[in-house]
What we know:
The chain is mainly α. It folds into two domains: 38 residues; 128 residues, no CATH class. The protein is elongated and about 95 Å long.
Amino acid sequence: MHWVEQDQKSTQGKILSTTRKKIFKKLTSKILITMNKLLFQRFPDIGLLILRIGVGSMLFLNHGFDKIIGGPEKWAGVGQTGMGSLGIDIFPAFFGFMAAFSESVGSILILLGLFFQPAAFFLFCTMAVGVLFHITSGIGSPELAMAYGLIYLTLFFAGPGKFSLDNKFFSTD
């Protein structure tokens, strides 16, 4: 009789243990799924927002602002330097203005996520010219222009994310 009672208790304990494990597994699974939905799926958009604000403000403050307020003389120098390294010597002020416009207004557009992909494309092109200048002239390092260029190329393909003015005004969702 003692064996039967002990065997029944052992069986009940195993069933209870198995039931607890199943409940724990379901609860854990639901918690992880909920966390994934609430937190982790939002990170790409938050990451894009942080990257847009960081890169957009750095390029604007460190490069674009000085160039855009520099006026025609500054623009001609920038255009001659950049496009001259490609063998293009015509319209240096125009090309310099385009670089200044890209680095200033384009940076603000990236920061805001407005007209994002055209801005990212033009900034990538501007950085490509910068890389070529550094490589062909041997002046300075092309590393920063390459880093900015790769960031803008990546952003071009990734898009501005959910937290952008493009998403607010032009989203088809």
